[in-house]
């Protein structure tokens, strides 16, 4: 028998499918790609948004083959609380992913002494790092997640925006997992990362849910209720990076080497900058 939750999801999915077609006459084209800054961008289609129940225009870059859909959505305190509950549910998953990441880095002779993590939520990765003898500090814009992590793990988690000039002490590895896809203009944050990493002579590891050609078929019928698909949550996932796009972004900001490191859940780019 169909569960009540599934019935609700089906009703909401149908409501989104029944939305009137968008008015393309009022469509505003972006001037450039938020990833590689190319002006070769084009409109793809409108995609349904699960949280705000509307259609959002999606664009693609012909240069780096990344996709993006500016939404203007802002999370309120209730959503921040739901985000915390989600992070608490996936602790075991994130512990496993964190260990896999540090093991993959160690195989590449990357053995940090101190980690700076941006967008780390409750600090699960930093707790795993500490169990491996690695010190760390974390920043996140969710004060509820930071407070829970401080109380539960005893970590140095700060609920504030990080910049290249933030007084966070020295570090030799910058880590950012599943953050850049939430930022409408990610080049600004990346410039800050590159500047501080050069100053610290540190490497950066950045992971996002990549959108490659083998997943383009989801564009045909984007389903905002189908988890583990590229367009599951268009309100907050506003930039869909390709591997090529993130590599170009790094090289445009002075990266001297870029390596894709397969770690399973958190596959990402290991980036070095000239000091």
Please outline the helices and strands.
Elements: H1 4-17, E1 41-49, E2 54-61, E3 67-68, H2 77-89, H3 91-107, E4 114-118, H4 124-131, E5 135-139, H5 143-153, E6 157-158, E7 173-177, H6 186-200, E8 203-207, E9 239-240, H7 243-252, E10 255-261, E11 268-273
Parallel strand pairs: 4-5, 4-7, 5-6, 7-8
Antiparallel strand pairs: 1-2, 2-3, 3-9, 8-11, 10-11
Explained architecture:
With 275 residues, the protein is α/β, with parallel strands linked by helices. The chain starts with a helix and ends with a strand. Helix 2 packs parallel to helix 5 and helix 3 (91-107) crosses helix 4. It contains 7 helices and 11 strands. Helix 4 links the parallel strand 4 (114-118) and strand 5. It is globular. It has a domain at 77-210 and 241-273: Vaccinia Virus protein VP39 (Rossmann fold, 3-Layer(aba) Sandwich). A 7-stranded mixed beta sheet has the order 6-5-4-7-8-11-10, sandwiched between helices. The model has no long low-confidence stretch (mean pLDDT 93). 32% of the residues lie in helices and 20% in strands.
* Widest beta sheet: strand line-up: 6-5-4-7-8-11-10
- Named at the architecture level, the CATH assignment of the domain at 77-210 and 241-273 is 3-Layer(aba) Sandwich
Q: Find the CATH topology of the domain at 77-210 and 241-273.
A: Rossmann fold
Please report the number of helical segments: 7
Q: Using only CA atoms, what is the Rg?
A: 19 Å
What is the CATH C-level name of the domain at 77-210 and 241-273? Alpha Beta
Seen as an oligomer or otherwise, the chain set is single chain
Number of strands: 11
Tell me the span between the first and last alpha carbons: 62 Å
- Give me the CATH superfamily of the domain at 77-210 and 241-273: Vaccinia Virus protein VP39
- Mean pLDDT rating: 93
- Estimated structural class: alpha/beta
The biggest beta sheet reads: 7 strands, mixed
**Could you name the ranges where pLDDT drops below 50 across 5 or more consecutive residues?**
none
Shape type: globular
- Percent of residues in beta strands: 15-25%
Return the string of H and E elements. Answer: HEEEHHEHEHEEHEEHEE
Helix share bin: 25-40%
């Amino acid at each position: 028998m169909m569960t009540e939750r599934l019935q609700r999801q089906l009703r909401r999915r149908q409501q989104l499918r029944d939305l009137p077609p968008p008015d393309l006459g009022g469509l505003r084209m972006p001037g450039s790609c938020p990833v590689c800054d190319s002006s070769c961008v084009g409109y793809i289609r409108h995609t349904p948004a699960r949280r705000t129940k509307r259609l959002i225009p999606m664009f693609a870059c012909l240069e780096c083959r990344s996709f993006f859909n500016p939404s203007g959505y802002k999370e309120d305190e209730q959503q921040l609380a739901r985000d915390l509950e989600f992070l608490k549910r996936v602790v075991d998953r994130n512990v496993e992913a964190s260990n896999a990441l540090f093991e993959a880095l160690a195989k590449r002779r990357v053995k940090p002494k101190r980690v700076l993590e941006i967008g780390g939520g409750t600090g699960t990765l930093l707790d795993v790092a500490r169990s491996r003898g690695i010190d760390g500090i974390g920043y996140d814009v969710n004060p509820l997640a930071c407070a829970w992590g401080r109380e539960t793990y005893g970590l140095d988690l700060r609920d504030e925006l990080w910049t290249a000039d933030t007084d966070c002490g020295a570090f030799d590895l910058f880590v950012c997992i599943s953050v850049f896809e939430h930022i409408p203009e990610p080049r600004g944050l990346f410039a800050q990362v590159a500047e501080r990493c050069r100053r610290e002579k540190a490497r950066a590891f950045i992971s996002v849910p990549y959108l490659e050609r083998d997943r383009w078929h989801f564009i045909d019928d984007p389903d905002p209720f189908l988890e583990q698909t590229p367009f599951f949550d268009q309100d907050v996932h506003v930039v869909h990076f390709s591997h090529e796009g993130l590599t170009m972004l790094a090289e445009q900001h002075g990266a001297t080497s870029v390596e894709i490191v397969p770690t399973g859940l958190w596959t990402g780019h290991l980036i070095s900058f000239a000091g």
